[in-house]
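This week, study the protein below.
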Amino acid sequence: MNSNINAGGITRRTFLTAAGIAALSLSTAGLFGCAGGSASSGGSGDAKKKITVAYVLNGKPTSFNDDSNKPAGYEVDVVNAVAEKLSDKYTFKFEGVDQTAVFAGLASGKYDQGLTNSFWTPERAEKYLLPQEAVGATLLGILVRKEHADVSSLADAAAKGLKLAPITAGDGNYYVVEDYNKNNPSAQIDLQATDDANAFVEAFDWVAQGRYDMHVIPLQYYNELVVADDGSYHKYADDLAFIVIGATKTWSFLTPGDDDYAADWDAAVKQLQAEGKLEELSRKWYSGINNFAFLGDSTQTYNYLDEGVLVDPADESVLTQR
């Protein structure tokens, strides 16, 4: 596996380890859940192609095991909705593993599809099959100390000289900042890559303690790690602030060569989008927020707001109104 992709996978996963749940990942790695029937159900089901979907354990709210130890979350619900659309051709099974195992399994053909809340990166697009239709959208933002809560964009952060925490090479967040720098040559952010697999979680300490000034992350991680009472960095809840600056598409990568399923997936996802199902699921899993509304031009990988939105953990109504 490409080392950059490994690094990106570890970075997205490390906050789970910080929450003390690595043991659960190991103990439930063989857990299966079903969508759209079972490949061994008999009858017409025997002629259907089975799609094995690997999902990241405990990646709430995109994918995780619920209190019944069954797969749940935004991306799991999307696959279940697709399964209903494609029930005449496919059966689906879920397998919960860690993120590195998702990508390794896709590369080897062990899994047909992966759910990891993944951003586009050139390495992933080259190594895995990328459908035309994104599985979802994630709100992007800047984590800062409250003294910098007036920052409203990456350009504003660059103008104020805020120091960005290093980002693991190959991680999707790295390409968010790289994309910004390419489009803003006169207002650059110093982007430093690191091979530290724990940089994603360590940066919460680094920013809070003043070593760095900001960390670029999805809103959901701020909510899960800082805002939540049981979050690993809830101790910094009074010290840190989060500004939503835009959104990015997220992708469910497929094993290379499965072009027929990719075409069927795209057709089903388009139907779900047209029916309003993806918006419904976004509001269900992201605190009432329609993440897709923040994408703007749907042809873009990243979309930045004209002015950032400071998140009030007690009232996210400014985000839910879209």
The chain has twelve helices and twelve strands. The CA atoms of residues 238 and 279 lie 32 Å apart.
